[in-house]
Model the fold of this input.
Amino acid sequence: MVHLGFQVEQRFQPGYPLLVSNGVKYWTLAALALLFIAAGYTRDFWALNVNYVLYFLQSGRETWEGHSFFNFMLPWPSQHIYYTKYAITLVFTLVNFVLSVAFIWVLFRNKALLKLLFAIYAVVTLVALIFFLGGWVANSLDEGYSYARLLMGFLQSPVPVATLSLGYPLYRNSQDSMKR
Done:
């Protein structure tokens, strides 16, 4: 056994997290976790301030409450700012997808899990698009948008990768115990 402040096995067993002989994997996972946190705060910063710009322009208020970085948006038409929200959603969904792929690969080195992660992102995005378009067709865009936004918020978080990271070892353990 190697002592790193906690007990870990010396050999690496693919498919089981954090059973490593070196600290590189641990620190890489920790760095990816910090990047997830940074991406979440950055996304909230952008979304909140774009909403402030939109509110400021549509309300006719005289005082601007958003961050000064977003002053460049003030002369934009409201419709452009509204579409910026879609771009932010796309960018941060892709950022979280890339971080999730990196996390799964570092943790498990399992291509089947990567395919499952891709399928989760594809299916949830498709369902969100269906809700959004359904709301548009049914002349209830606000309701369709709220469901789509909820689903896309799920993809803009570490929840999908956390579910796979915690669920896969449980699945493997259950499969191993069934073989005995």
Notes: Residues 23-59 form the longest helix (37 residues). The chain has one domain: 36-179. The chain is about 75% helix and 0% strand. The helical segments are 23-59, 78-108, 111-137, 141-155, 159-179.
